[in-house]
Design a protein that fits this description.
The chain is an alpha/beta fold. It has four helices and three strands. The chain has a single domain, classed as Bordetella uptake gene, domain 1 (D-Maltodextrin-Binding Protein, domain 2). It has a three-stranded parallel β-sheet.
């Protein structure tokens, strides 16, 4: 009985700790490829689903070029607040060995 009360108490405190619901403003999803490709299409399906579930706009922005580094670096320089997301594919793993200098 004590453990049930402790668990309920913990759950109620976690609810109070969430001072601000996420997302409270638009979220940008960066795709580091040109529009119309499979990664862009996947990001748009994810954005549509998240928008309907969370009742907030998820905006897809295609930032192609530089072997996907330009868009990826844009996300890496964004504030770490969860409002700029990256949808990528396996190329990000290859870029580490292909390019000498990158901030990602």
């Amino acid at each position: 009985m004590v453990s049930v009360a402790a668990t309920l108490s913990l759950v109620s405190m976690l609810g109070m700790a969430a001072a601000q619901e996420y997302p409270s403003r638009n979220v940008t999803i960066i795709v580091p490829y040109p529009a119309g490709g499979p990664t862009d299409e996947t990001a748009r399906m994810i954005a549509q689903s998240l928008s309907s579930q969370l009742k907030q706009s998820f905006i897809v922005g295609d930032v192609g070029g530089g072997g996907a580094i330009i868009g990826s670096e844009k996300v890496s320089r964004a504030a770490p607040d969860g409002y700029t997301l990256l949808v990528h594919n396996l190329q990000i793993a290859a870029n580490v060995s292909l390019y000498q200098k990158s901030s990602i």
